[in-house]
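INFO  loader      accepted 1 record
INFO  loader      residues=360
INFO  predictor   begin
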Amino acid sequence: MPLVIDGGRIPARWAAKKGLLPEVSNERNIPRARCVRLALINNMPDPALEDTEIQFFELLENAADQVPVSVKLFSLPGVPRGDRGNRHLSEFYHSIEDIWNSRFDGVIITGTEPHQPDLRREPYWQALVNVLDWAERQTSSTVLSCLAAHAGVLHSDGIARHSMWYKMCGVFECKRLCDHALTNLTSDLIQFPHSRWNEVREDDLTSCGYIVLTKSTEAGIDCFVKKKRKSLFVHFQGHPEYEARTLFKEYRRDLRRFLTGERKTYPYVPHGYFDAAATKILAEFREKALSQPREELMADFPEAAVTANLQKTWHAAATSMYGNWLHYLVSRKTDTSAFAAIPRVAFNYMQRKRFATSER
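INFO  predictor   done
INFO  writer      dumping tokens
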């Protein structure tokens, strides 16, 4: 079912992708009892702002199936912006002040590039805290992505993130640790992209009542949840919304920063992402770049050769988890258990398992 961009003009790239008119959309033809209303608070920096819109729009539309979904766009004040970013926000986004008197079933909050070791010193911190407190009281579920997940646990439980000496970047295999409505019908082993310099640790989370749903041997915690007041908070350290080329764009950006002297170390090739042929080509370019580091070398970067076989190996798992999340929101709208939205065969399996356990 097509996604509805509520309350404003449709962003041009999404309109072009879907062949839509860039005009105000509405929900008049959607049954309000079933329509899931979402706020997407997109705080990504300007170069990734529009890409992130597309990523979440695409993921939500794929995950929705027959669930009508409308999305309204917001961004936190205090996130550093240039002229292009501010123009885009003024044309397609709504003031965060509008959210306080609005009713949303769920909210998705993205991270942004951190500039302070302590997130509480970021200029947008108080605005983010206000949104998190609002979400606890006014939504059925809240999704926090990457840095937003770190900020969420810091604010509500005082859990500090830990910096790593390298960037955790790549596609990592994650193991499903427990049965939960959000991981229903996913495989026991799934893949998700990660891209971060910091982490929160399992012991810190579980001691504060968080339930870890998925975990990677190499990347650590992937997804974890906790009910906060009336809202189920869903935290992703990874990025199930990423498109096939997103990690490549980040790697290319980091490489350019090394060649211009903005970063001191040459970026690692994303784990589990490129095939053997592309990895060999990138290793050859690395030798050349280390011997003569200058920005002009980017003109010779073998983009076409290394991206030819990139695949979105996490597509099915991401679609499944977000589909489960949307059905959870539908179930909360109708005042039923989250498991009411799970297909009967899966429900019966878990019901039998629970009964079998109770009889032991």
